[in-house]
Write a structure and sequence with these properties.
Elements (H helix, E strand, L loop, with lengths): L2 H8 L5 E3 L2 E3 L5 E2 L3 H10 L1 H9 L3 H11 L1 H14 L5
Antiparallel strand pairs: 1-2, 2-3
Helix pairs in contact: 1-2, 4-5
């Protein structure tokens, strides 16, 4: 989850952001709560971290086929332990 995407989602009147300064479609500066946006990004950071750390789907399926479901569960659990929810 990118900060700029969160800013747009929290305030639909924002058309673009330059150096954390937001503007509407007419070029007028728009006030927004940067700390709320940053908190939302931080609260969801584990999702991006996990997605990057998980093996690809083909690799996961290959591991299940060759090593069994328990080995796959260990692999997935290790990633979840490294990047826990809500940290």
């Amino acid at each position: 989850m990118k900060l700029q995407d969160v800013i747009f989602n929290l305030n639909p009147s924002i058309a673009y952001v330059v150096d954390k300064v937001a503007y509407d479609s007419n070029g007028n500066e728009v006030a927004y709560d940067l700390s709320a946006a940053e908190a939302l990004v931080a609260a969801n950071a584990y999702k991006d971290q996990r997605a990057a750390a998980y093996p690809s789907i083909p690799d996961q399926l290959d591991q299940i086929y060759h090593e069994g479901i328990d080995a796959w569960k260990e692999t997935i659990s290790a990633v979840k332990a490294e990047y826990p929810k809500g940290v």
